Amino acid sequence: MQKKSVVISGVGLWTPPYTVSNEELVDSYNAWAEQYNTKNAEQIHNGEMEAKPFSSAEFIAKASGIKNRYAYVKEGILDINRMRPKLSVRKDEELSHQAEMAMHAAKKALSEANKVSTDIDMVIVACAYTQRSYPAIAIEVQAALDIQGQAFDMLVACSAATFALQRAYDSVASGSCRAVLVINPELTSPQVNYTDRDSHFIFGDVATAVVIESSETCVSAHSYDILGTQCVTSYSNNIRSNFGYTSRVTDENPYEADKLFHQNGRKVFKEVCPMAASHIEAHLSTLGISINQLRRWWLHQANINMNLLISKRLLGRDATLDEAPIVLDRFANTASAGSIIAFSEHHKDLEEGDLGVICSFGAGYSIGSIVLQKRDVNA
Ligand code: CO8
């Protein structure tokens, strides 16, 4: 059977209504740390407890490039007596929070691709966390959008989007689906430890979505041939959360730091950058494409210095912002949605034949890349 040629024909980005700046976050964390240190002054003085160090907005911007992040719910995040967002409980009959985020982005992607629900055969909700295990968020979204066929959730941390795009590509190429909707509702804030100076600034909430279909059915004004997909994993404990469905029965405290996102950021930086650079290089070489032929790099958005290092390693010089756009200054790390936000905001200026790569890297470790070529608008 001949493989179909597969394209990305639409992308959608939904930004939550609230923003939290570095300054707001640091003011709140520092007030919390001061309260903690005062409350535990005696134990800290006796060496039984460690004082909480203070955070700094300048450090955050310099070490990561992050200046701001979006929040699905802001209430509670900056409250020093809470330090976590206050999400409302919705009834079983109501649309869940994550499905709502997913719907916003999905509708935009469908509209950009000029597609309607009946054109789609598969929905993948791919992200770092889902708010429950079953029924799948993807099936809830599928029902809300009145899409037939199948839907499932897929968790691959920061690489969930690229891994899902590979699955979508395979499904369309083999002919088992006409079109696939991949959605990344990244509701990260519930898992952020806002009392940890090393990580309180890292994440933001957002939702992205992508439509993948056969080139034969594509009627989009901006579409991209998928030239290749490559995904790889390599086990590491350097980025971890121990929260899970067994947390209730292990009788551990669900608020403990190890139940939230935690990492050895320096090690991650050192280990993941060379892995991502080699991955992109190897993938391009299997397609007979040289690094210098890439017009755009839509890289994972965790840290600006990581992106600069990866592109410098491959290009032998710093990539320009036009070549490798940065969105993390406004969005922070949005897990798997980061490279898709970059693609969403920076693709319409490409010309027919231009080449680009979407690349994710993060927890697992997991790395995924999708090589694209802009199609002729009239094709
Ligand atoms: N303010 C002031 N000082 C600080 C702060 C702060 N907020 N934070 C740390 N410091 C201090 C440190 O304590 C340290 O002090 P000392 O030298 O006295 O020990 C000093 O500053 C330097 O600290 P680091 O060496 O840690 O600083 P780095 O330059 O390495 O920067 C970063 C820290 C920004 C975390 C950086 O290491 C980094 O970005 N690494 C890459 C991490 C990464 O990409 N991780 C991927 C995670 S995302 C992912 O995989 C998805 C997971 C699933 C989603 C989760 C959703 C919640």
Care to describe what's here?
The protein is α+β, with helices and mostly antiparallel strands. It has 10 helices and 13 strands. Strands 5-4-6-7-1-8-13-12-11 form a 9-stranded mixed beta sheet, with helices on both faces. Strands 2-3 form a two-stranded antiparallel sheet. It has a two-stranded antiparallel sheet with strand order 9-10. Helix 7 runs parallel beside helix 8 (304-315). The protein starts with 5 loop residues before the first strand and ends in a 5-residue tail after the last strand. Octanoyl-coenzyme A is lined by residues 55-56, 59-60, 63-64, 128, 157-158, 188, 191-192, 197-198, 201, 203, 239, 261, 263, 265-266, 268-269, 302-303, 306, 333, 335, 362-363.
Task: Give descriptors for this structure.
binds octanoyl-coenzyme A, globular, Peroxisomal Thiolase, Chain A, domain 1, 379 residues
Write the layout of secondary structure elements.
Elements: E1 6-14, E2 18-21, H1 22-39, H2 41-45, H3 57-64, E3 68-71, H4 97-113, E4 122-127, H5 137-145, E5 150-155, H6 160-174, E6 179-186, E7 206-214, E8 224-233, E9 239-240, E10 262-263, H7 265-286, E11 294-299, H8 304-315, H9 328-331, H10 338-345, E12 355-362, E13 366-374
Parallel strand pairs: 4-5, 4-6, 11-12
Antiparallel strand pairs: 1-7, 1-8, 2-3, 6-7, 8-13, 9-10, 12-13
The structure holds octanoyl-coenzyme A (CO8).
Octanoyl-coenzyme A binds at residues 55-56, 59-60, 63-64, 128, 157-158, 188, 191-192, 197-198, 201, 203, 239, 261, 263, 265-266, 268-269, 302-303, 306, 333, 335, 362-363.
